[in-house]
Amino acid sequence: LLSAGPVAVRAAVAIEKETPEEERPETFLRAADPAAATSVRARFERMIREAQDEVCAALEAADGGAAFKEDVWSRPGGGGGISRVLQDGAVWEKAGVNVSVVYGMMPPEAYRAAKGEPGAADPSAKAGPVPFFAAGISSVLHPKNPFAPTLHFNYRYFETDAPADAPGAPRQWWFGGGTDLTPAYVIEEDVKHFHSVQKQTCDKFDPSFYPRFKKWCDDYFYIKHRGERRGLGGIFFDDVNDYDQEMLLGFATECAKSVIPAYLPIIQRRKDTPFTEQHKAWQQLRRGRYVEFNLVYDRGTTFGLKTGGRIESILVSLPLTARWEYDHQPEVGSEEWKLLDACINPKEWI
Amino acid sequence: LLSAGPVAVRAAVAIEKETPEEERPETFLRAADPAAATSVRARFERMIREAQDEVCAALEAADGGAAFKEDVWSRPGGGGGISRVLQDGAVWEKAGVNVSVVYGMMPPEAYRAAKGEPGAADPSAKAGPVPFFAAGISSVLHPKNPFAPTLHFNYRYFETDAPADAPGAPRQWWFGGGTDLTPAYVIEEDVKHFHSVQKQTCDKFDPSFYPRFKKWCDDYFYIKHRGERRGLGGIFFDDVNDYDQEMLLGFATECAKSVIPAYLPIIQRRKDTPFTEQHKAWQQLRRGRYVEFNLVYDRGTTFGLKTGGRIESILVSLPLTARWEYDHQPEVGSEEWKLLDACINPKEWI
Lengths: 350, 350
Known about the structure:
two-stranded antiparallel ribbon
């Protein structure tokens, strides 16, 4: 659903239980939220909701039959979300596109640690819990065809309010997110196209973004106990606040807009590729790795499970089906081995 | 593989990388291990290796075709294991029966905390790391037929040596383990038979064991984010050292011996039950829950993944295949609902 955001949030206490809603509200922001219409939080919420609409419409058109099922939910104290899932379509086995808005409280030590203050570990520096706001879009798309890759993207914005006992204290904010590709087979043309679109998007904002966020992605989606990455990467960044806020809002917006041009041309090319049972079994084994990463390492998933987020929204990232064979070793030089090699030794694709 | 044992071990540092062996050694104990032949550690190792042989022979006979594949491995500093896996048999989709012996080091704070010493949190009480020994048998058996339940059992023995800087310090030991049943459908006759065998085994040693260890099992195999248990329980205990050591060794031995009489009669009755695609899909959804529990909560699995245990042995507990459907809700009153209800509200079966 949402990533954990800054280290701070991982220590936060449980959030309130969600309740289903009949209708999509205009906004999930609290009515009392200051400058509701023009604030970055309000503009970010509008951005992710537009992105959700656009991505879902494009996916439905590409699937050519199945429709997204929508669940709207809210929390009594403010916040909520819209989960959309397309299951057992013509092209996608399971596709989830969620937006959510969270109001919560984090312990003051976590807040100080996140700000990097030297007194972070000093228990004598008394302060109350810090209210935070988080909004994000999160999506995982698992196609049926073993030659059509899985896509994940997630963009999120995070803010702390002034603490209740220090009304003048500065407000903190962070952006995070990324888009990454997880194929079962390496088709160079596809991986190059995907990374090229990521680089073009990054380059519009800062020439350092693509190389930095590409490496961050390779480092983040690492299944430590396997010594391999979940897939072939893309871009990833977290807790970023050392650029102009407007620039980062623009960057996240552009990243979300680039999902469809980065992904759909690949799907159009591969959705009808003939395949064998062996190809399908290998895809299922890689889906098993996807499950391992998400349940063991992913910050958003593990944070969500621990804090009482909406379980079905969080776990919609898991594939419809997955497989674990004991000690499976692809034959050296095979197509399966090439994918595994690229997951073990990340490559420069462009 | 092994459970984390006492809280202490979870903080232990990574263990050495394993190397494959051509032959099963007589023992995985270090040659220099004191009183090698008569010590509890030696007797426990012999017990689990005999149990592995007996269980594997009984499962192969019941499967009527498939044979276990064996991997033997050792670690340079002592210890090792035997992993046996039967995959895609006539009756079992995936069955793993592993034994292992581990020599490791745990931080002194963890050791003091495990002993319950009041000074546990006092950093001024200096001491070196504490060597530990652990041995265990661990098994998960996933049948193909949706009416034939999954079985898990694991019995382990744990000891600390005297710390290097305090040679006279007392040696600590603990036993842990359990046997539990995870069906996709509630067949009362089967669950009652399974729990009755657990109770009979417990009652030979202490009348308090079955009620205590039955509840401990219901509490342990809890998927917190779902509010439901993995299955229909059995017995579970951990860090137990408040009984006579010989009595507990005898109890663990008897528990391991009761696995086949508790489980095989159920398999014989259910392995050929006719089933539909719907039954199979529900079994696969419950297998997804099994994966969630093992990767997110199970102490043995999460400990093993973090400390560099043998990954294929640890993850052999995962089913061959599993399934996650978005927001699946069984119809109230259906057979699927009855299983879910029993996982949410644990029952007294006997």
